[in-house]
Amino acid sequence: MKKLLYPIIIGLLAVVLTACGSNDEADKKNDDKETKTTEKETAKATEEQQKQMEEMQKKLDKQKVDEKKTVAIVNDEKISGAEYNTVLSTTQMQMQQFGQDPTTKEGAKQIKEQTLNSLVGQTLLLQAADKKGYTASKAEIEKQLAEIKKPYKSEEKFKEAMKQAGLNSKMLNAQIAENIPYTKYVEKEIKVEEVTDEEIQKYYDQVAEQAKTSGQKVQKLEELKPQIKEQLEQQKKQEKLVKHVEELQKNAKVDIKI
Known about the structure:
Blueprint: H1 6-32, H2 39-61, E1 70-74, E2 77-80, H3 81-97, H4 105-131, H5 138-149, H6 155-164, H7 169-189, H8 197-213, H9 221-250, E3 254-256
Antiparallel strand pairs: 1-2, 1-3
């Protein structure tokens, strides 16, 4: 059973897509500055940047484990090193997006714990979904695959992103097939209270205060209300999900091997 769920797939492909886009923007900026910068200086800067990226990747790769190694056992179900490395890579990229260095001693420790917690939690939820009898139809799998492909301009671009993310069509389809029962389980079994106007007002007041302190313009509540409501709904869902996993873990046998 694979543990790479749909949100992680989307996150991973999105990171790859953004990286490609960022490179395109960088290229355009370099073109604009050609009149001010010599070809030699540009080549030197590019070479230096490439070296830094290669050095960073070497450090990141050192955090990976043997793909065949069992990193954890959850209720007699083994989690492989290959699964660990996939989620690890996503966590590393997300950490870098937030401006943090995943190669520091503290960063490496945080990433390892986060990756293991994520895999154990996902496994427990998938096991619970399976016990409840949630399944995925062929039509549901095809529909979700189409949704994932939407942001890409062509099939070639999508395949390129998948390759960079370490995925292939077979892996992606299998993971989507497991995510659908997971999603059904979360939506139907984990109920979240509706966000109240009072909660929205409180959140808005905090945002407004921070904006004033930093000298930024404060938008009206009516303009931010939909965004705030969605943010609070996601926050409540995540908190409830974490508590649910904690409850599942109380009755589970979890053995961490690394």
